[in-house]
Design brief:
The chain is an alpha+beta fold. It contains 14 helices and ten strands. Strands 1, 2, 3, 4, 5, 6, 7, 8, 9 and 10 form a ten-stranded antiparallel beta sheet that branches. Helix 5 packs parallel to helix 10. The structure holds protoporphyrin IX containing FE.
Length: 499
């Protein structure tokens, strides 16, 4: 029985091939899977050989487009339990005391393609799908607390600059620093990525961060702004550049392999979920904009609200990891996107790309399907596996009683502004990069300087190099001076760059 495909169970077997029989995709038995049909001993192949043709056709169509970013990843199943009653903050089912929610997490690297080494310097994706009683909630985060940019309109350009050159097909610091010289707010994230946090030792020993502010909404409709943080119970363990190079020479999959080994041994990795909370009035209390994804809420205390345990690897990588689709648009009552401009773009972008990458009905696939009944009149489309049987495919209707539930209403926010197209006011591009630098140990600082100098030193355009150096200098004088020395730059020129 274990060889039967999933649909055999869901539609029920009505006879035909038994469990040991190979079949074509229409269920008919295959007579010979070793010899194709030919016209005699030395004649050509026959067009009527459906088994040969179907096999070659299916084989030719095995690949789907890889994710445009975060192509290389590993998925793991597990569960989440809340550890504190936060009903004063949110009505979200996932935080209901005493509940247990199945989760699926996909860890990934960002820039390089599906078969790339897991040792490369990059943020790591940390995406969690919670299959809650009120639909799926996806918390699509990274292993670093901030991001490079604060406006979604910059994302495709940033990714183009970081991906291999369209001419040479190689990643080139000349290209991405040419982009980042125009993005001073990236200084904070670049500092994290070029530190050893950019090469985590494995997937278990790294934290996860929601990065953006989200909104929690309680039964009374009251809103609080929160940031989410997964703290690894395994601690943090990063690789130096030398260690990463050494591992890469032997193994392209060290992080995936570490996860398989841990789960196989029953050494289930755990993360505690922490939140930082601000009420809407407090958003004004900072010298930066708290809805800016390049910033951490440094002085806001965090509280533990739950624990996640990962305990089961997928049985099929393609079905449960390649076809998994996480989207910041997947929210549930009690959790909403904040007005963070980067997040607002993400709320659109993921579902859109998944309709292209996986198809219109990708949310019906077993790995993505909510564990609650989905009923609406979004219909048809390629690959539809829905159970729509009614003649009523519209709403409202006197015949069909299904209707809205006020639980699903978004919170409301009073607005007085005019529409506009301009940058945020409180930018503070460098200060938190300095805080990060000063928080590192002397050895970690040294590694950061060396890692960053390795790439910045390759930049041929002197002006770009000095502008980038001036950003790190503004973050912290020692940081900038050491980096300038390491790339043979001119400190006078660095100091002269206008902010
Ligand atoms: C406007 C900014 C961004 C845009 C437009 C964007 C867009 C995308 C797209 C198109 C994908 C591929 C999705 C798929 O094919 O399934 C993706 C994947 C991903 N992004 Fe972003 N992204 C942005 C910023 C971010 C940020 C700030 C984070 C972290 C907080 C992040 C974390 C991830 C993760 C973890 C994945 C992989 C999800 C998975 O494992 O399938 N992205 N992003």
């Amino acid at each position: 029985m274990k060889y039967l495909p999933l649909f055999a169970f869901t539609i029920g077997l009505i006879g035909g091939a038994n469990a040991e029989t190979l079949t074509r995709d229409n269920g008919a038995p295959v007579g010979d899977n070793q010899n194709a049909q030919t016209a005699g001993e030395n004649g050509g192949n026959l067009l009527q050989d459906v088994q040969l043709i179907q096999k070659l056709q299916r084989f030719a169509r095995e690949r789907i487009p890889e994710r445009v970013v975060h192509a290389r990843g590993t998925g793991v199943h597990g569960e989440f339990v809340p550890t504190a009653d936060i009903s004063n903050l949110t009505r979200a089912a996932v935080f209901a005391p005493g509940s247990k929610t199945p989760v699926f997490v996909r860890f990934s690297t960002v820039i390089h393609s599906k078969g790339s080494p897991e040792t490369l310097r990059d943020p790591r994706g940390f995406a969690t799908k919670f299959y809650t009683e009120e639909g799926n909630w996806d918390l699509v985060g990274n292993n670093l607390p901030v991001f490079f940019i604060r406006d979604a309109i910059k994302f495709p350009d940033m990714v183009h600059s970081l991906k291999p050159s369209p001419v040479t097909n190689q990643q080139d610091p000349n290209r991405f620093f040419d982009f980042f010289r125009h993005v001073p707010e990236a200084t904070h994230m670049l500092s994290w990525v070029y530190s050893d946090y950019g090469t985590p030792a494995n997937l278990r020993q790294m934290d996860g961060w929601g990065v953006h502010a989200y909104k929690l909404v309680n039964e009374k409709g009251e809103v609080h702004y929160v940031k989410f943080h997964w703290k690894s119970r395994q601690g943090i363990n990063n690789l130096t550049a030398e260690e990463a190079t050494e591992i890469q020479a032997k193994d392209f999959s060290h992080a995936t392999s570490d996860m398989y080994t841990a789960i196989e041994k029953g050494d289930f990795p755990q993360w505690d979920l922490y939140i930082k909370v601000l009420n809407p009035a407090q958003l004004e209390d900072f010298n930066y904009n708290p809805l800016d994804a390049t910033k951490m809420w440094l002085d806001v205390p965090e509280t533990q609200v739950g624990t996640m345990t990962l305990n089961r690897m997928p049985t099929n990588f393609f079905q449960e990891t390649e076809q998994s689709a996480f989207a910041p648009a997947n929210t549930i009552p009690g959790i909403e996107p904040s007005e963070d401009r980067l997040l607002q773009g993400r709320v659109f972008s993921y579902s859109d790309t998944q309709m292209y990458r996986l198809g219109t009905n990708h949310q019906q696939l077993p790995i993505n399907r909510p564990r609650v009944v989905v009923q609406n009149w979004n219909q048809d489309g390629a690959g539809n596996y829905g159970q729509q049987t009614s003649e009523v495919n519209y709403q409202p209707s006197r015949i069909d009683a299904r209707k809205e539930d006020s639980k699903g209403l978004y919170s409301s926010k009073p607005l007085t502004a005019s529409t506009q197209q301009k940058a945020i006011e409180k930018k503070l591009p460098f200060a938190q990069a300095g805080v990060f630098y000063r928080g590192l140990s002397p050895k970690e600082r040294q590694n950061l300087i060396e890692n960053l100098a390795g790439d910045l030193g390759k930049v041929r355009d002197d002006n770009t190099k000095h502008i980038m150096l001036s950003y790190f200098y503004r973050a912290d004088r020692d940081y900038g001076e050491r980096l300038t020395k390491a790339v043979g730059g001119d400190l006078d020129q660095v100091r002269k760059v206008e902010p």
